[in-house]
């Protein structure tokens, strides 16, 4: 589903991603952990080209994102993204937030988009909030709507950029539960997260990044129970 | 003699035509200015220099020179050169020149209002829209501009009021607006106070109506985005 080769990203003189190599298969759930500023979010944003890649190759779902001829908007319809700050559209109600892209990008008729949206709201437990505006929702509810909005495009891959970092502690679980359900249904997911419990329990593979590099990767038990690298050990001793 | 209000009745046709002209000038300049301003504002935000720099130059030129000079230059230099010398047609009349000069000027100010409004919307909104597969144009139209427009309403209201009053400058090229009506009445009758007070009251009423209208729109488009 995802092949990343030799990915490098620079912001001016700042070398943010250094020679990243990753392969992610279909239905795989990969969590990316690491200290702040390690390049996790930048790596994730390179997977749908919200960040331009400085060098290297990124292939997602058969599309070479680094090829200038690739229609990036087409690729993005297959790649859902969930943001730390939710980024719901505040001038639209919940239903319109979810149906906006299916109607205007997928060109679905309104009835079809709304039926899909209501089914997804059922799934995230927010059917009753269809007519509410984002300003009337709690953080956890906003993030669940944001997940429904991304799923409405029927993506093959979902990217999560610290989806629970902006939430009050009591709302983290409701969002993680939705993500867990999604993982169980076989969605391919890349999750940048500080939730070590989620990474350990739900992911197939954990990637530890530090200073723009992938320092260590492996199954959750390898990473959390038998870390090899000193920097990973130091990181885990601080967060666990 | 000085306070002979009957001259207003006597010259009422001039005042009514003037009122109509002032309203037309303002409405045309607002509508055309919004259109020019949107295009220039988006050009200024482009990362392509060949789009951005002409917009910067345009805004600098029209904000950095007096509107009075712009009206004179458009009427006596730019349009005659364009129509007579290039196209071989008669030069447009003073009213047409005024519509064009005011619209060009309003476009520059409104461009800055659009730019500020668009920049005030969190970058994450554009990213979220793009991440759903929308083109830049769709994301602007469906997500960024509707939110930016709410924040632009107060400065746009100020601009519309300024435009309404500044339209009085077209009097210098003898366009029959409200100010011209007062000036002509005073000149012909030697009655000074009533024509000027009448014109001032007309502007006052028009600006009050306009500011109430903008205030009403602001309340309807709740800035928190909960309604409408």
Global structural class of chain A: alpha/beta
Judged by helices, strands and strand pairing, the structural class of chain B is: mainly alpha
Overall geometry of chain B comes to flat
**CATH class call of the domain at 22-175 in chain B:** Mainly Alpha
Runs of chain A with pLDDT <50, length 5+?
Answer: none
Secondary-structure element order of chain B, as H and E? HHHHHHHHH
Report the major sheet of chain B. Answer: none
- Poorly predicted runs of chain B are none
Strand content of chain A: 25-35%
Strand line-up across the major sheet of chain A: 6-7-8-3-9-10
Name of the CATH architecture of the domain at 22-175 in chain B: Orthogonal Bundle
**Helix fraction bin of chain A:** 25-40%
Strand content of chain B: under 5%
- Tally of DSSP helical segments of chain A: 9
Number of strands of chain A: 10
Number of helices of chain B: 9
Shape of chain A: globular
Rg of chain A, rounded, reads: 18 Å
How far is the N terminus from the C terminus of chain B? 56 Å
Determine the most extensive contact between two protein chains.
A-B, 28 and 22 residues
What does this structure look like?
The complex is a heterodimer of chains A (240) and B (228). Chain A has 9 helices and 10 strands. Chain A has helices spanning 40-46, 72-76, 94-104, 110-123, 139-151, 169-184, 196-202, 220-225, 230-239; strands at residues 2-11, 14-24, 29-33, 55-60, 63-64, 79-82, 157-161, 188-192, 205-210, 213-218. Chain A has 240 residues and is an alpha/beta fold. Chain B has a domain at 22-175: MetI-like fold. In chain B, 79% of the residues lie in helices and 0% in strands. Chain B contains 9 helices and no strands. Chain B has helices at residues 6-10, 12-44, 49-64, 67-87, 94-119, 123-131, 136-166, 178-189, 193-220. In chain B, helix 2 runs antiparallel to helix 3, helix 2 (12-44) runs antiparallel to helix 8 (178-189) and helix 8 (178-189) runs antiparallel to helix 9 (193-220). Chain B is flat, with a radius of gyration of 21 Å. The model of chain B has no long low-confidence stretch (mean pLDDT 93). The A-B interface holds A 48, 50, 73-74, 76-77, 79-81, 83, 85, 87-91, 100-101, 104-106, 133-136, 149-150, 153 and B 122, 124-125, 127-135, 138, 142-143, 146-147, 150, 224-227. Chain B: It comes from Laceyella sediminis. Chain B: It holds the Pfam family BPD_transp_1. Chain B: It is found in: Cell membrane.
